[in-house]
Amino acid sequence: MxxxxxxxxxxxxxxxxxxxxxxxxxxxxxxxxxVPAQFHLSAEQERAFYDLHENDLADSGYRRFLNRCAxxxxxxxxxxxxxxxxxxxxxxxxxxMLEDAGHRVWLYDPFYAAEKxxxxxxxxxxVTTEVVEHLAAPGVELEALWALxxxxxxxxxxxxxxxxxxxxxxxxxxxxxxxxCFFSDDTFRWLAKHLGARLELAGPDLVFLQKSGVDAK
Length: 217
Hints:
By secondary structure, the protein is of the alpha/beta class. It has helices at residues 43-50, 60-76, 93-100, 138-148, 165-169, 185-195; strands at 13-18, 23-27, 33-34, 82-86, 104-108, 123-129, 149-158, 181-182, 198-203, 206-210.
């Protein structure tokens, strides 16, 4: 039985890696590497794992980490933009950093800020920092976020990217049991083409997808 890619829904997935905990497949169409559903944690297990994280609004190291997204994003945003921090976690420091720079930011996280009204408005920018690797259905989620962006808007995605099968085998990123989707440059190129976005590979773990400045509606 074929396994559908959770990003592009293509059925042609091939074995990519295997370890003691789970299998990893790679889509032949969009190049996403993903963990089949039978190896996913339950929602309760996932939440318990996240609760172990010690992200703190006053943590200077956490601020430096998030600044890898905040600084280049702020260079690209018009003044007083409105944005969404999707998957903000229990300590939404990035939102605070962007608000301190004069922007307005709404929050959404299925575990820590599940206010659905934030998903029923539109935005100039959306940030997802260390989020897409956790998504069981990234195609659905990213298309929904893309629909919330205003013309010319930016979707900032911060996630570490797949480099090669050899490096993947020893990669610390796959040891996190909540990490189930792994994007590469080729995956983001596919996604940009699929969404009709302008893609900028802005850093080793940061990409920007920009919407056309003309509303297609």
